[in-house]
């Protein structure tokens, strides 16, 4: 009988640190942001190491409705949670069952609720990461299982958060388990028939690990990975546990030891959440005056109509920084110019050009003596070699012609002189003097 703690999946501080270290992608852009504000004036912008950009915020007046964050300072490092637990929560259900599925968990054995824990937030992308739901089934003997089912519920009817359907996947790990989403019986994927030798590190193609897209629409805003396990687990001593989890694409890398014991149980994985400005809100039409609570507060930002959560709740929008700007479109002057010249991989400028940043873009004029467009890699010499050669040849010919002409002229002069003298020219000249 495994100890209950083996099947406990709640994030722990140590795991949090590990994942924060790995989750630096979203924070990449924030390095630049260090000096510039990401919150409203006078508002704290950090929970431990975690940046809290507006519309998220910790204190009254510092967040937009629905975006309050609670920072738990009682642990080190501090942890951040979504405060609105009526709309956003993790539901964790423990159950013992001999049935071949975790459906028994639905009957509501020992259900508890937890706030959604944040991993990071990006205002510019209108996204956040949170620890996702992991459902586990661990054999206690060959026929008996202990299940823990986790469901992530976000904004049941009106957001502002929703699990991104495109950026996350559902992953199954274990022998002979099927994964189904959201309490449905529709198979998402299967982990195969239990031939141990077929499992390969890094491969989630159906041998000990499987992966599938999320269904397009969560049921009542709740995302719940589900397991269907075999009636009898012959491998229960060596491989007691199997898992189904919703996780950001590529974030979970299958490793064969995850099939044995409880190593995977030690980790939590992030899911990507989309957020939007909700409340019967859409982008103002062209020429229309924006409403007083219009969220796109920064200059050099723009508004995009969006859909977050249930399809019936269609009116919502997100704010973006204009092209060549980055930062926080949700606060005044939050979008700042990107120095494109610092990111030559993203903003091309030919090695024959000179990169020059300017607000809202960059220029790449060609180096002196060249013409064309360095952004298109089309810098060419103003006088290409052929032209130079032609000029050279013409010049050469001209010089030869001139010299020949001078030589000829001298010859001609001498001839004239000789003729002159022969014909008594000098005598005539003398006569003239008289
Ligand atoms: C995160 O915060 C802890 C203390 O809370 C600190 O020791 C650590 O250096 C910080 N890490 C980073 C990457 O800022
Ligand atoms: C449910 O809670 C009770 C009392 O705390 C405990 O005795 C029981 O083992 C729990 N059942 C499960 C399936 O966790
Ligand atoms: C498995 O455990 C359950 C409850 O602990 C027990 O009722 C059942 O008889 C056990 N089955 C086997 C095959 O040992
Ligand atoms: C997978 O990698 C782990 C270490 O991360 C190693 O212990 C295990 O043997 C590897 N499995 C296979 C099938 O190579
Ligand atoms: C949503 O807003 C539009 C116009 O701003 C208004 O006509 C409509 O009644 C509103 N709907 C609800 C449900 O508030
Ligand atoms: C957003 O949607 C509203 C209402 O449907 C529409 O009036 C407006 O033009 C749209 N704005 C943009 C930028 O698409």
From TrEMBL:
Transmembrane annotation, as ranges: 385-409
Alphabetized UniProt keyword annotations: Disulfide bond, EGF-like domain, Membrane, Repeat, Signal, Transmembrane, Transmembrane helix
Top-rank taxon, per record: Eukaryota
Record domain EGF-like: where: 337-380
Alphabetized GO MF terms: calcium ion binding; polysaccharide binding
Keyword DNA repair among UniProt keywords: no
Cited SMART domains: EGF, EGF_CA
Annotated PROSITE patterns: ASX_HYDROXYL, EGF_3, EGF_CA
Topology in membrane: Single-pass membrane protein
Entries under Gene3D superfamilies matching the protein: Laminin
Main location as per UniProt: membrane
Location(s) in or outside the cell: Membrane
Stored InterPro entries: EGF, EGF-like_Ca-bd_dom, EGF-type_Asp/Asn_hydroxyl_site, EGF_Ca-bd_CS, NOTCH1_EGF-like, WAK_GUB
Protein name: EGF-like domain-containing protein
Family annotation (CDD domains): EGF_CA
Signal peptide: 1-29
Species name: Triticum turgidum subsp. durum
GO CC entries: membrane
């Amino acid at each position: 009988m495994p100890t209950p703690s083996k099947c406990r999946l709640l994030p722990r501080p140590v795991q949090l640190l590990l994942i924060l270290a790995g989750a630096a992608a979203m924070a990449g852009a924030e390095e630049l942001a260090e000096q510039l504000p990401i919150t409203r004036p006078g508002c704290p912008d950090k929970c431990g190491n975690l940046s809290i950009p507006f519309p998220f915020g910790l204190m009254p007046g510092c967040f937009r409705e629905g975006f309050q964050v609670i920072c738990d300072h009682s642990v080190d490092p501090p942890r951040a949670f979504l405060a609105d637990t009526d709309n956003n929560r993790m539901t964790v259900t423990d159950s013992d069952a001999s049935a071949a599925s975790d459906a028994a968990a639905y009957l509501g054995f020992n259900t508890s609720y937890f706030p959604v824990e944040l991993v990071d937030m990006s205002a510019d992308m209108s996204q956040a990461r949170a620890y996702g739901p992991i459902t586990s089934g661990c054999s206690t003997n060959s026929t008996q299982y202990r299940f823990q089912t986790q469901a992530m519920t976000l904004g049941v009817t009106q957001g502002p958060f929703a699990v991104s359907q495109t950026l996350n996947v559902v992953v199954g790990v274990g022998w002979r388990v099927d994964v189904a989403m959201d309490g449905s019986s529709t198979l998402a994927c299967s982990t195969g028939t239990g031939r141990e030798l077929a499992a390969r590190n890094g491969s989630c193609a159906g041998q000990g690990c499987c992966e599938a897209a999320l269904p397009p629409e969560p049921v009542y805003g709740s995302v719940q990975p589900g397991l269907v396990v075999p009636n009898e687990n012959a491998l229960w001593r060596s491989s007691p546990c199997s898992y189904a989890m919703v996780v950001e694409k590529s974030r979970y890398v299958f490793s064969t030891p995850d099939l044995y014991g409880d190593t995977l149980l030690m980790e939590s994985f992030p899911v990507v959440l989309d957020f939007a400005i909700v409340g019967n809100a859409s982008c103002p039409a062209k020429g229309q005056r924006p409403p007083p609570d219009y969220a796109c507060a920064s200059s050099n930002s723009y508004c995009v109509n969006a859909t977050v959560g249930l399809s019936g709740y269609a009116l919502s929008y997100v704010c973006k920084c204009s092209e060549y700007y980055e930062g926080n479109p949700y606060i005044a002057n939050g979008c700042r110019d990107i120095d494109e010249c610092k990111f030559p991989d993203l903003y091309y400028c030919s090695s024959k050009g000179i990169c020059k940043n300017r607000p809202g873009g960059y220029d790449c004029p060609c180096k002196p003596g060249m013409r064309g467009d360095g952004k298109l890699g089309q810098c060419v010499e103003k006088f290409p070699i052929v032209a130079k050669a032609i000029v050279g040849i013409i010049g050469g010919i001209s010089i030869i012609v001139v010299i020949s002409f001078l030589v000829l002229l001298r010859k001609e002069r001498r001839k004239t002189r000789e003729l002159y003298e022969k014909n008594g020219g000098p005598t005539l000249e003398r006569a003239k003097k008289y």
